[in-house]
Amino acid sequence: MERGNNPKEEQLEQFKVNNYGKKMTTNQGLKVSDDENSLKAGVRGPTLLEDFHLREKITHFDHERIPERVVHARGFAAHGEFELLRSMKEFTRAKFLQDVGSKTPIFIRFSTVVGSKGSADTVRDVRGFAIKFYTEEGNFDLVGNNIPIFFIQDAIKFPDFVHAVKPEPHNEIPQASSAHDTLWDFVANNQETAHMMMWLMSDRAIPRSFRMMQGFGVHTFRFVNEDGKAKFIKFHIKPLLGVHSLVWDEAQKIAGKDPDFHRRDLWENIEHGNVVEYGIGVQMIDEKDEFMFDFDILDATKIWPEEIVPVQMFGKITLDRNVSNVFAETEQVAMHLGNIVPGIDFTNDPLLQGRLFSYLDTQLLRLGGPNFAEIPINRPVCPFHNNQRDGFSRQRIDVGQVAYHKNSLAGNTPSTSSWKEGGFVHYAEKVEGRVIQARSDSFQDHFSQARLFWNSMTKPEKEHITDAFIFEVGKVNSADVRQQVVDMFVNVDVGLATAIADAVGVNRPKGQQVNVTASSPALSQSNTPRYPYTLRVGVLIGSGFNGNEVKAVVNTLFENGVAVDIVGEHLGSLMGADGVKVVLNKTFLTTSPVLFDSLYVVGGNAKNQAKFKSDIEEFINEAYRHYKPIGVASTGEPIFNQSIAKIGPGIVIASQAGANFPADFIQAITQQRFWDRNIYTE
Ligand code: HDE
C-alpha cells in the first residue's frame, strides 16, 4: 500500500466535496439568488414563512451539534498506516498480521477523558489512544489509553467513577480536572483505584506530545491461531521518539497560552511531513500459565511487568495525513472494541465485557441511530452484506426482495462463513461456575503494584508524584476526605503519605506500606529514548547579532530536525552586525517560554531595549525553572547574567564552549530536562 494506493483514502475521496469556485444552491440543488436578506413583505416588513431558503439554512444550523462523547469528548485524530514487520502467523490468524511488509490503513483518535470538547489539551488526565485498523477482514478497533491500567475492575462501576471525576454536578466545577472533592472521595472509598491514581499523579498524565506517549490496549485479549490455539495478550504501542512529559507548572500555563498545544503539535508535524511513528507489539502468556502470577491476568488494574513478560514488537504505525474535516472524521468516528477480526478475541476481564456493550450503545445516541457504520470514516474497506435494514438516514439501497436468513429465494445468501472460510468463530473457552455478583479474591490486592510503580520511579519522578498529590488533595475542601486519602496511600509509601499529610493539614498516617521491594525499570521515563528531532527551540533575538555565529547554530538545529521559532520585538526581519538577515515569526507577545523545549538566547538591540531585555530575562527565568536547556550566544550573555539562571546543567554558553557550542547545545536539547538543577538556590 503506497501513498495514493490506500484503500481507505480512496474510499474517503469519493465523499469529499470542494465548494470552492462553485455556485451556491439549496440542498435540493436550486441556485440561490440572495443569501443576505430574508424574504419580507416590504423592506421593513415581516419575514415570510414562504422563504424556504431561510428555513433550510436556519434549520440545518439549529441541528449542527451532536452530543459530545460522555468521556473522551476532546479528541484529535489523524490518518496513517500500519506495517507488519514480523509475522505473527504462529500466534494469530488475523490476516493483517500474516505477511511481513503488508500495510493496513489506520485512523487514530487521541483524547483526554474528563474535559469537554472545548477544554484544554494539557490538563492532568489519561489520554485516549484509539486506533481503527481498516483490515481486509473488517475493522479492528484497538480502543486504548496511554496508561496501561484502569481505575476500576468491573464495568458496573464506570458510571460512578465518571460521575466522581467529571465536574461536580451542582456547579459544573472544576472543568477537565481531577483535583476536587468527589474524585478523591471516590478514590478513598474505592481502593481498587490506587494503582491508577499513582499513574495519574505521575508525569504520564501530562505528556509533551501525542507523538511522545505510549499506548496500551489495557485489557487482556487473546490471539488465536489457525489451529485454534490461543494465547493471552496485551497490546503495547511505543513511540519512536520516547515517552516525554511536561512539568506541571508548565502544563497549567500552556492550558492558557495554547489550549490546543497537543493538537497543534500533531497537526503541524504531519503538515510538515515529519515522521510520526510508533512501534506496536504484544506481551503473550500461554493459557497454561494463567494462574502463574501474583496478579490476576483478568484484572485491568494490573500490568504484566515487562521484565517478566517481555513485549514482542511486530509492527510499525505511522501517521502521515491530517483529517480534511474534523466533524466528519474525528467527531463521527465510532470506536468500539467489539470491532474485532478473526484471530483476535476477548477474555473474561469484567471491565472489557462491559465495554463491549457500552460503545455500540453510546454510538446509537451520539450518531443518531443504527446506520453509523455507513458514515464514511466508519466504513470498512471490505464489502459488507447482511439482512439489517432501514433506520434513520439509511444510505445504501439494498436491492431485492429478500432480507432474512435462512431463505431459498436468494439461494440462502448472504451466507455465513465457516472458520475455514474466514468466519469469526468465538473462542471456545471452557467456563463453569455459579451465577454470582461478587469480585474474585484474586482481584483484592490493590496496593502491591501501586508500590511496584512507586519503587520504579527515579527521585525526580517521585518528587513530581508527591507534588501532584499535594496539589490535587490540597484542592479538596473536605478535611475528612483529605485524611482518608492519606490513610489510603500509606499502603503505597509511608514517606509519600506523610508528605501529603503535612502539606494538606491532616494527621500523619498510622498504617504501614505493603511489603513490596521489586521495581520495573520499564515503568520509568528516565529510561526512554531521547532525540532532538521535532523539539522546538525559541531563538530570542534583536538586531546587531553575530551573523556567522547564529547561522552556524540555526543550521545545526535544522540539520537535527529541530523546529525553530525566531522570536523578537516585532514580526518582519532583522539585520545582524555583519549584514545577515533573519525573519521573525513570533514576538514575545505571541509566544511564551512554556511553548518551547529550549531557548537560544541571542540578544542584541531593539527599539525598546529595556522591555526587550526584560522580556528575554522572563523567558530565561521560566525556561530555567522548568529545567530546560538554554543556549547563550556571545551577544546574549549580558541578559543571561541578569536572569535567575545559573551556569550549570543544561546551560551552554558560547563564549565557553567555543566551536563546540552547536554540538553541545544539540546534546543539551536531546537531554530535554535537567532535574539536577537546583532552581531555588539564593
Ligand atoms: Fe471507554 N468509553 N469506557 N475506556 N474509551 C468511551 O465511547 C467505557 C475504558 C476509551 O476516540 C465511550 O464513543 C466503559 C478503558 C477511549 O472515540 C463510552 C468503560 C479504556 C475512548 C465508553 C470504559 C477506555 C473511550 C464514550 C468501563 C482504555 C474514546 C464515547 C468498562 C482501554 C474513543 C464513545 C474515541 C470512549 C465506555 C473504560 C478507552 C461511553 C463503560 C479501560 C480511548 O462508550
How does this model look, in words?
The protein has about 675 residues and is of the alpha/beta class. The chain folds into four domains: about 10-50, no CATH class; about 75-380, Catalase core domain (Catalase HpII,  Chain A, domain 1), CATH 2.40.180; about 450-525, Catalase, four-helical domain (Hemocyanin, N-terminal domain, Up-down Bundle), CATH 1.20.1370.20; about 530-670, Rossmann fold (3-Layer(aba) Sandwich), CATH 3.40.50. It is about 25% helix and about 15% strand. It contains 18 helices and 18 strands. Strands 1, 2, 3, 4, 5, 6, 7, 8, 9 and 10 form a ten-stranded antiparallel beta sheet that branches. Strands 15-12-11-16-17-18 form a six-stranded parallel beta sheet, sandwiched between helices. Strand 6 (about 220-225) and strand 7 form a beta hairpin. Helix 11 (about 460-475) runs parallel beside helix 13. The longest helix has 17 residues, at about 350-365. The chain starts with 6 loop residues before the first helix and ends in an 11-residue tail after the last helix. The mean pLDDT is about 95. The structure holds CIS-heme D hydroxychlorin gamma-spirolactone 17R, 18S.
